[in-house]
């Protein structure tokens, strides 16, 4: 059962009249409950691919089916709905709203989903407990450490129970010890049945995944199962 089905995805940026091809035909299936690390040199197209997977951007050509929805044919308003309902995105820079408390940040996707205030607060509180921040729900981002901010962002990504969790260098701004803690949370997210795609430059972060896909110059250079992890899977 594919959560992600990509067929010959191409993406070019146009700078004036000049076409810069960035993705040059990516074909790929990711199954339910896979845990995939996406690697590759800077400029190889990882962020571009993640933005397409996350319905933040559309491909120039090719087909993208997410959980049965043809995302490559969607208008902006449909893309926004899919983003909110099917995708949880975790960024390197956390992307929290500075004026909102941890609880309010986690509840934002529930506002768009049309859920009432009391239920929003209960769900957001529950998600914060799941990431070990149950006692910090009133704190604002600037009153939290980087690792705690990333936990809030992870809780926000999970709160609508999306079919896909995407993380673009989620430990890129964190020290080693905090990175290990965040990777433990991703491990638990995956163990509870989620599908996870994570971009990283670091081999020891990629070692947490069951499958490692390497991009180079806009094409897939390799796609390998992680032997140790796949046995345990
Ligand atoms: P990362 O390698 O961490 O994914 P970014 O996605 O921020 O880094 O940027 C990757 C490359 O894309 C950089 O070389 C950056 O200069 C370039 N880039 C990002 N956004 C734009 C843009 N809007 N126009 C031109 N180049 C961009
Ligand atoms: P990676 O995440 O692997 O570092 P990116 O997907 O960020 O790679 O970038 C791939 C290429 O696309 C780079 O050459 C970058 O400069 C270019 N690029 C990325 N975003 C833009 C943009 N918005 N406009 C123009 N060029 C871009």
Kindly describe this structure.
The structure is a single chain. The protein has helices at 46-53, 76-86, 102-112, 117-130, 146-158, 176-191, 203-206, 227-232, and strands at residues 2-15, 18-31, 35-39, 61-66, 69-70, 87-90, 164-168, 196-199, 211-216, 219-225. It is of the alpha/beta class. It has a six-stranded mixed beta sheet, with helices on both faces. Strands 2-1-4-5 form a four-stranded antiparallel beta sheet, covered by helices on one side. Helix 3 packs across helix 4 (117-130), helix 3 (102-112) packs parallel to helix 5 (146-158) and helix 4 (117-130) crosses helix 5. It starts with a strand and ends with a helix. The structure holds adenosine-5'-diphosphate (2 copies). The site of one adenosine-5'-diphosphate has 11 residues, from strand 2 and helix 1.
Hetero groups in this structure are: adenosine-5'-diphosphate
Secondary-structure element sequence?
EEEHEEHEHHHEHEHEEH
Shape: globular
Rg result: 18 Å
| Average predicted local confidence, pLDDT | 94
Decide which structural class fits the backbone: alpha/beta
**Main sheet summary:** 6 strands, mixed
> Roughly how much helix do the residues carry, as a percent range?
25-40%
Poorly predicted regions are none
Main sheet: strand order: 6-7-8-3-9-10
Distance between the termini: 16 Å
Total strand segments: 10
Count helical runs.
8
Strand content bin: 25-35%
Protein name: ABC transporter ATP-binding protein
InterPro entries: AAA+_ATPase, ABC_transporter-like_ATP-bd, ABC_transporter-like_CS, ABC_transpr_LolD-like, MacB-like_ATP-bd, P-loop_NTPase
GO molecular function, one term: ATP hydrolysis activity
Keywords: ATP-binding, Nucleotide-binding, Transport
């Amino acid at each position: 059962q594919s959560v992600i089905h990509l067929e010959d995805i191409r993406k070019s940026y146009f700078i004036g009249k000049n076409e810069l091809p960035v993705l040059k035909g990516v074909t790929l299936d990711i199954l339910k409950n896979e845990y995939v690390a996406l690697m590759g040199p800077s400029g190889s197209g990882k962020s571009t691919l993640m933005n397409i997977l996350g319905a933040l951007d559309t491909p120039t050509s090719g087909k993208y089916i997410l959980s049965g929805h043809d995302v490559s044919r969607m208008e902006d308003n449909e893309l926004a709905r899919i983003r909110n309902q099917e995708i949880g995105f975790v960024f390197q820079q956390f992307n929290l709203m500075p004026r909102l408390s941890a609880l309010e940040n986690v509840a934002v996707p529930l506002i768009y989903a049309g859920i009432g205030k009391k239920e929003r607060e209960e769900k957001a509180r529950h998600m914060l407990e799941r990431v070990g921040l149950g006692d910090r729900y009133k704190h604002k981002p600037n009153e939290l450490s980087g690792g705690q901010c990333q936990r809030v962002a992870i809780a926000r990504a999970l709160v609508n129970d999306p079919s896909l969790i995407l993380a673009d260098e989620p430990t890129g701004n964190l020290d080693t010890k905090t990175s290990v803690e965040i990777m433990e949370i991703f491990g638990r997210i995956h163990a509870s049945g989620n599908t996870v795609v994570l971009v990283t430059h670091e081999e020891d972060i990629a070692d947490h995944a069951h499958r490692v896909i390497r991009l180079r110059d806009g094409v897939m250079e390799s796609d390998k199962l992680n032997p140790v992890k796949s046995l345990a899977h």
